[in-house]
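G., the chain you wanted modeled:
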Amino acid sequence: MAPGAVSRLQTLQRNTFRYFWQETNPSNGLIPDNTSAGGIPASIAGVGLALSSYPVAVERSFVSRAQAVERTLTTLRFFWNAPHGPMRDATGYQGFYYHFLDVTSGRRAWRSELSTIDTAILIAGALTTAAYFDRETHAEREVRRLADSLYRRVDWRWALNGHASVSQGWKPETGFLRYRWQGYNEALILYVLGLGSPTHPLPAKSYRSWTSTYRWKRLYGYEYLYGAALFMHQLSHLWIDFRGIQDAFMQRQGIDYFENSRRATYVNQQYAMRNSRGFRDYGEHVWGITASNGPGPTTRRVRGVTRRFFGYIARGVPYGPDDGTLAPWAVVASLPFAPEIVLPTLRHYSAAYPKVESEYGLVCSFNPTFPTRGSRKAGWISQNHFARSGAGHSHDRELSFSVDLATHAGLSICGEGPAPCGLQSDGADQSGFSDFIESISSGVIRGRWRMKRTSSHACFSPAGSGLPVPNAGMPVKRTPFSMM
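Predicted structure as tokens:
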């Protein structure tokens, strides 16, 4: 990879981290959901992503280890000690936390729901810090203790509410939401954490219920597990290396979740290349349709066509919604899966749309189709950065993977060389998630989550859980590429 390209990616990492470090309230670790205005509440998913970024920042020397430990402890102490119970203004209940919290008080904001997926992201971030900060100092021991305690407090079984699949949330005013986590999406990390819980694990039937709602599709010549928004294929991979690990569904299809995300990336690009809806600039090097902010809600007549534009929404392909809004961060977040198409796209974005780069890395989104006076080429450009599961997770993925995976041809998440190290356990067999699920359901396996570190990178797994070592028989493909 050309030195200039590496330098640009390193700069992107540094600028991206500034978002987490500067926007976070240093007194409690809460980060505003977005930068649109003062008084915006915190997103707990954004907090989980911020926690996950601190180890990367230490490795990159953006902050010192002591600074990162201090910020981490502030955050974990807040969540452990914050008001917890059925009260309407609490911070959390049953180990879960409200989607949005007041940045100053830490109390529930916007009458939001107790969010199962956002809690999972928060817990994943806490466990990441517990794994990285492994020294025998008082402060780092406290990080590990608090992260473990937060994980143990989550009552995943309560979130089932008598059903097989996990509810998306709960409100003190109305009870459980009617929506459940079904169909392939970002909830993979939720179910893995729930299954591995040492205190309140999900039953095996919960995972089987979830995968029974999967949809396998063939689009543009690619067969894959369908998920409309690109971020669904990226988020869980922030913490788990899925290469070579297959559940029963993936065993039947003959691929793993990493390969599935690679195909989803190509589908996103192919959709833009075909551009059946006639959006401006869509093409080989202009793609990235996913959950993001947008210029709406509004309707405009553009070049003789009446178009409806959305605000923040989960855009997806090929069935929509789509209004011509593109998320550059979604392209960067695809780097581990398809560097051969990501790097040329980033190069094109930098040359054709220089205004999509900001003080915090890449902007949330832009829409060349939406008419504006100030930026003819890029059209509408989002002025805000988001900490939630859209742009926020991209910031984390930009940080975690842009240089590391580009350097190793996008395929060495943990450690040096081609061997993946993701979901590992001592003495585990090679049989996949199905054995893990069956073991949990039979009560044989328990144990807290830890991370297995190799070199300066880490991947977490439940100690003694029976999670499989990645299949050594699955070939690791290396794709040569050059950004220059």
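The first helix runs from residue 3 to 23.

Shout if anything looks off.
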